[in-house]
Amino acid sequence: MSDTIESRLSTAGVVLPEAAAPAANYVPYVVTGNLLQTSGQLPLEGGKVAVTGKLGGGVSLEDGQRAARLCAVNVLAQAKAAVGGDWSRVSRLLKLTVFVASAPEFVEQHKVANGASDFLVEILGDAGRHARSAVGVPALPMDAAVEIEALFELV
């Protein structure tokens, strides 16, 4: 699976960044048994939050989907770090939790989350099909538009 993931990333034009260091008192991921849980990942690009603000309050659906995709890229960077670069240890993506900074009237969090879900299925194939929650929140750290955490099964 590792060659497939790397080749799919290359085909998608994605170079995974170095896994982001925690911004506070937590670890970027935890491995216990055969589970890998990532901490929430922001839409970082070049070390900065690329999409800020609230969906329905100045941030378009398309920009929200781009933010979700960037979060997913950073989730994969954390997963790669957790398995020491050995993608063959990643059995499947079990669950995504997608937090969307939303104006009170915004109700399309699920469509924002598709930016991550579609990308992860593209890169991980069938092992990327996952359960998901998409939740609207009033604000996220550093005014990020989206934050995503993921749960993976390892072998």
From TrEMBL:
TM region positions: none
Stored Gene3D superfamilies: RutC-like
Xref: Pfam families: YjgF_endoribonc (PF14588)
SUPFAM superfamilies: YjgF-like
Span of domain Endoribonuclease L-PSP/chorismate mutase-like: 6-146
PANTHER family found in the cross-reference section: ENDORIBONUCLEASE L-PSP_CHORISMATE MUTASE-LIKE DOMAIN-CONTAINING PROTEIN, ENDORIBONUCLEASE-RELATED
Protein name: RidA family protein
